[in-house]
Design goal:
Blueprint: E1 3-4, H1 19-28, E2 33-39, H2 59-72, E3 78-85, H3 92-100, E4 104-107, E5 111-113, E6 121-123, H4 130-146, E7 151-152, H5 167-183, E8 186-190, E9 198-201, E10 204-207, H6 212-221, E11 224-228, H7 240-251, E12 255-256, H8 261-265
Parallel strand pairs: 1-2, 2-3, 3-4, 4-7, 7-8, 8-11, 11-12
Antiparallel strand pairs: 5-6, 9-10
Helix pairs in contact: 4-5, 5-6
The protein binds zinc ion (2 copies).
């Protein structure tokens, strides 16, 4: 592993460490590049923000913190400014503004809503019905189609509670993989799932994500993939858990991409 674009920051209030702490760890691990991508602030979301994402008032500090280490360590490692963002239709000005301040976006669709003004939200960790997983599909496909996102984080999050990989789960996987392929968006094999629970599935015991059934679909459709550690502590950037996930990831035979193509071009 030479790059990690899915890296958090203490500002989200459930991670530890500053941008510098993660950059130092990346240098220690011999990485060529690291992108900091903390949970975006979003003034339009109705839920209590504390504990889940940085505050809007912390954004300037965040951008400055990453910019400072980008400059300080520029001879040793490439540092990028990112954000992990949920997509909701109708807020294009907001996304375009946030993109103008950063190098890239990761789609982390932790919430979906079935009304347009996002007053009623569902956690993507708790989807239970066919209708809900198809709604998740609609959000993710629409987000991919906007062109705002370079990576889809843990794309199979819809299987967290809806654990049976049935015909509907298959359709969701196919739609996401096809959209990602068509728009050259990378699907993330999220190694942080290896720190979560294991579940019993029809093909045996596995982590709640990544899910083998999902990645088989990605392989068949031929969408590009990337490995991320989604670390919330600096020492989790590339520890033995991530190294195990890396081995499993390579064994899947997916199309692997190490660098975000648009950032590679700008170098
Ligand atoms: Zn987080
Ligand atoms: Zn994350």
């Amino acid at each position: 592993m030479n790059y990690n674009y899915h890296t958090h920051h203490e500002l989200c209030q459930h991670a530890e460490g500053t941008a510098e702490d993660y950059v130092k760890e990346a240098i220690k691990q011999g990485f060529k590049g690291i992108g900091i991508s903390d949970h975006t602030p979003n003034p339009y979301l109705p839920m209590p923000e504390r504990g889940w994402r940085m505050q809007m008032s912390d954004l300037a500090y965040y951008l400055d913190d990453v910019r400072t280490v980008k400059e300080r360590y520029k001879d040793r490692i490439k540092v990028y400014t990112g954000l992990e963002v949920e997509y909701f239709p109708g807020y294009d000005q907001f996304y375009q503004h946030m993109l103008s301040e950063t190098d890239y976006f990761i789609l982390g669709q932790h919430y979906i809503s079935d009304d347009d003004d996002i007053k009623k939200m569902y956690s993507a960790f708790g989807l239970k019905t066919k209708e809900q997983i198809h709604l998740y599909k609609k959000y993710v496909v629409e987000a991919i189609n906007t062109g705002y996102f370079d990576i889809v984080a843990h794309p199979e999050l819809y299987l967290f509670s809806y654990q049976t990989f049935d015909q509907d789960a298959l359709e969701v996987a196919e739609a996401i993989a096809k959209a990602a392929k068509a728009h050259n968006v990378l699907l993330e094999y999220n190694a942080n799932g290896y720190r979560k629970k294991m579940i019993e599935t029809s093909i045996g015991k596995q982590y709640v994500y990544p899910r083998k059934e999902f990645w088989e679909v990605v392989k068949r459709i031929g969408a590009k993939t990337i490995l991320s550690s989604d670390c919330h502590q600096p020492e989790f950037l590339y520890d033995e858990v991530i190294q195990q996930a890396e081995k499993d990831y390579h064994a899947l035979g997916l199309i692997e991409v190490e660098q975000i193509p648009s950032l590679e071009k700008s170098e």
